[in-house]
Amino acid sequence: MGAIAAVEREPRDPPRPDEIDELTLARACRGDPTACQSFVTRYQRPVFGLLSRVLGARHASLVEDLAQETFLRAFRALPTFDARRPGRLSTWILTIASRLALDELRRRRADSEPLESGARLHTSEASADAAAHRHEIERAIVRAMNGLGADARAVFVLREIHGLEYAEIAAALQVDMGTVKSRLSRARVALRVALAEVHDD
């Protein structure tokens, strides 16, 4: 599909998108090329963002492959998406992406791959000292996240980066909410410890 070929690499730290309108969604379901391209354009940033954070910088080519597969699966299943039901389209497509990422990591037994490209923070212009401190914090975050398994990383990214509710994350990862909360708690503790070490230096 032409829309798939147009997917570009994702800039870091994408904002959560507004949902596409119902008319565009209906046209995309019918395979309209312009609507399909609008669909890809709207959701490619969060899809790439999630995949790059869960898979890590060393898997850049895999991120691109799984992004393509995410949109292919989304387009195949799009006619089954009921916009009248609770649940955002962005949550639905992030669910597809997160399951693909975790399945791939499990197959590769690579639960602790680095997250270097996905852990950057947005900051304004700052002095050299402030920039150095910021980079130190970023590296601490990367180390903390690398110490977690892919499952905990996925929960953290879906909750803290993309803002999904606990129930949405549980549905996306096919686990209960207690598991979601425990994984998120583990990730937050790891981050607090890492950041405390930076501030103590």
Short précis:
This protein is mainly α and 201 residues long.
Please render the helix and strand layout as text.
Elements: H1 2-5, H2 22-29, H3 33-55, H4 60-77, H5 89-108, H6 128-146, H7 150-161, H8 166-173, H9 177-200
Helix pairs in contact: 2-3, 3-4, 3-5, 3-7, 4-5, 5-7, 5-8, 6-9, 7-9, 8-9
Task: Give your account of this protein's structure.
This protein has helices spanning 2-5, 22-29, 33-55, 60-77, 89-108, 128-146, 150-161, 166-173, 177-200. With 201 residues, it is mostly helical. The protein has a single domain (2-200), classed as RNA polymerase sigma factor, region 2, helix turn helix motif (Rna Polymerase Sigma Factor, Chain: A), CATH 1.10.1740.10. Helix 3 (33-55) packs across helix 5 and helix 5 (89-108) crosses helix 8.
Classify the beta-strand content into a percent band.
under 5%
* CATH architecture type: Orthogonal Bundle
Q: Poorly predicted ranges (pLDDT <50, ≥5 residues)?
A: 8-17, 110-123
- Pattern of helices and strands: HHHHHHHHH
The helix count comes to: 9
Please give the domain count.
1
Helix and strand composition category: mainly alpha
